[in-house]
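Now for a typical sample entry:
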Amino acid sequence: MLAILSLAACDDKNRLVAPAGDHAVLEQLAEAYRNVGEKYPVQPQAMPPGGRKEFVDKVFTLAGYHYSATLIAMGQSAADSSNQEQRDLVELLLLPVKGVSNEVRADLYTDDELVAMQRLQINFR
């Protein structure tokens, strides 16, 4: 059991956060979005919330980043809502919850992720 917890702790430390405001990172994510999108029969916006979350998670993974870690980091940062690259990243991060009730969000996300989303939605109106 201790070995499993140790591996989980190591995995948490190795979660790569997508840097905010980096145009090259957005290009990587856009390419991953296209590649992942080819494997789905519908556009992400037409998917149920859980499917959108899975889709976005796969996009971040394919681009070499961790969705949840990036979401939490962006929620904790002093993000600049006037920076278009940051706005684009936040739009992707929040794609799974667009038009979704708080109850559905609570079923899909951790408390830390929910707090990050709330901060991002306030800062990037």
The chain has a mean pLDDT of 86. DSSP finds seven helices and no strands in the chain.
